Amino acid sequence: HVFILSNPFPTDVPQPVLTVSPSWTSPGDSVTLTCRWRFFWYKAVPQLSRYSYTPELLAGGTNGTEQDSYILHGQTHTAGYACRAGRGDPVSYTRYSGVKFVWSGGVNPAASLTVSPHRLQHFSIESLSLICEGNSTEWRVMKVDEDGDVFSCSYWGEMTGSTCNTDTRASSGVYWCESVTQSSNAANITIHSELLFI
Length: 198
Known about the structure:
With 198 residues, this protein is an all-beta fold. Helices cover 2% and strands 45% of the residues. It has one helix at residues 153-156, and strands spanning 17-21, 32-36, 38-47, 52-57, 79-87, 92-93, 100-102, 111-116, 121-123, 128-134, 140-145, 150-152, 157-160, 163-166, 173-178, 183-192.
């Protein structure tokens, strides 16, 4: 009989290749197990009309990497990233990871976020305007809340042109502007509940 590992996944899900070294050992020897995949790294490109992101392979990533980490050099602006793994030729891929963001507080002349009133601490009863400026004609304001969930302005405010005006649904989180080609500086805004003193 041939013994195989029972597999709860469909047969079209890619399977990694496991190697062991050495195959024969003496008592007390160390053994290295290596699970072989190729990893593919993507930038998340905003799709403004669909409230989503499209994965775009990072430079030099067509063939993937055998390392399970990827170093971005010279990061200068806010951006989202994702990854997935694959095996075989042609490559059979896993699902994409979720999008994770890297935020920049630095000034980007091509895209900027202005908070009005001009501060990072606000009360929940205040209205708040988030203004996008830069080299694009269409913007959306985004937020990642304290739970890591991503929302666009339409969920907690109203987008008018390049300005997001919030109501009392605004909450603490990291806010930024994005277009199809640009992302702005990010602002970590804290929203406090109103305290009433009698």
